[in-house]
Amino acid sequence: MGPPKNAPRGDASIRVEGDPFALEQRPLPLRAVRMRAALISPFALTARCHGTPSSVSAARRPNRDGVERINYNSVMVLNGETLRYHLINRLKRWAGMRDGDDWDWRRYNIHYRGELKGIEKEHTLNIRGSDFAFEDGELRKKNPAAPDLHPNHRLLYETILQLRPASVLELGCGGGDHLSNLSVLRPQLKLFGRDLLEDQLAFLKERHPSLSADLAQFDCTLPFPIDSPSVDVAYTQAVLMHIQVGNGHRVALANLFRSASKQVVLMEAWTRHDFMGDIRRLHELKIIPWKEIFFHYRESPELRKPHLMVVSSSRLEAYPALADYKALAP
Questions:
Q1: What is the DSSP pairing of strand 167-171 with strand 132-135?
Q2: Nearest Cα to Cα of residue 172 among 201, 205, 209
Q3: What CA–CA distance (Å, rounded) separates 266 from 261?
Q4: pLDDT digits (tens, 9 = 90+) for 40-99
Q5: What domains can be seen in the chain, in order of their start residue?
Q6: Of residues 284, 297, 294, 302, the one with CA closest to residue 329
Q7: C-alpha to C-alpha distance for 150 and 323, rounded to whole angstroms
Q8: What angle do CA 220, 222, 227 make, to 5 degrees?
Q9: Phi and psi dihedrals of 89, rounded to 5?
Q10: β-strand 231-237 against 167-171: which pairing, if any?
Q11: Distance between CA atoms of 59 and 73, rounded to whole angstroms?
């Protein structure tokens, strides 16, 4: 992919046409245009599959913090909308127009749908019937023919079920697969889901029309209303790591702890924020209403290192204490 056909020899401009987010970048040297055009080819686009390495065999490149980069061309369908979304995001970053969260949330559903298509090629996203069961404190695959759960998801579900809550809240519930899977594994669970985007909630209802859950649209970077649900356990799966503007992720953390009376379970990319430090500071300021907080972690057998954080209002003897955040974010 080269520079625009009509670009002058010395300088050039990059312009994206036919899109409400079209932008014009200030003139760049022609060499820079060639380099950047090469980088935004479909073969260079990558998705992030946060946490433990998945079983995707093509183009796996794990980072030191447990984040794996997977080539989009290998694991998902690159339709026109998905490709345009990622091209625009990259161009905006280079032009200095993206000094905020990881995603343009107005168009995030485009990326999200594509990401699920990639993951479901290798993993079970929606648990069916008796393919998996929670037995003797472990989440086990019962049907050998079923694809494995993604290691992040398996560890998240197993941890929540071990805590034995009567009610759970997912912040950033997206397409609803986690809520649905928890309902299959423990039908008596009372489920709550909150998401920033109406189109994500519409997608959830499309994927799981029979899911019984209290769902609502809400921006988690604002304080929860006083009539928000109170639950035993609140959790996130790769949500807070993408909130990079101001104190947004700290407000979201405070919302989790105000909603949960027993535990908050976090599955995040640990180098994106100092989650442990932020939680301690919020507790010191009495923004977190718990009398005491205890930090624990769990390891996944696939990664064999601390991988998931459990913050509890009481000490959990079954889980090792998290004394040093560097165990999660070396």
A1: unpaired
A2: 201
A3: 15
A4: 333 333 333 333 333 333 333 444 444 433 333 333 344 555 566 556 666 665 665 555
A5: 11-119 (no CATH), 132-327 (3.40.50.150)
A6: 297
A7: 27
A8: 85
A9: -60, -45
A10: parallel
A11: 9
User: Which amino acid is it at 220?
Assistant: C
pLDDT digits (tens, 9 = 90+) for 121-152: 999 999 998 899 999 999 999 999 999 999 99
CA dist., res. 269 & res. 250, Å (int)? 15
The length of the chain in residues reads 330
What is the H or E stretch that residue 110 is in?
helix 108-119
Whole-model pTM over 0.85: no
Positive or negative: CA dihedral 70, 71, 74, 80: positive
Six token digits for residue 42 = 């479909």
Write the CB contacts of 8 (distance below 8 Å, at least 6 apart in sequence). 30
Q: Are 295 and 270 in contact (CB under 8 A)?
A: no
- Is the separation of the CB atoms in 327 and 304 below 8 Å? no
Direct distance between the N- and C-terminal alpha carbons of the chain, in angstroms, rounded to an integer: 38
**Nearest of 107, 237, 223, 230 to residue 170 by alpha carbon:** 237
3-state secondary structure of 325: helix
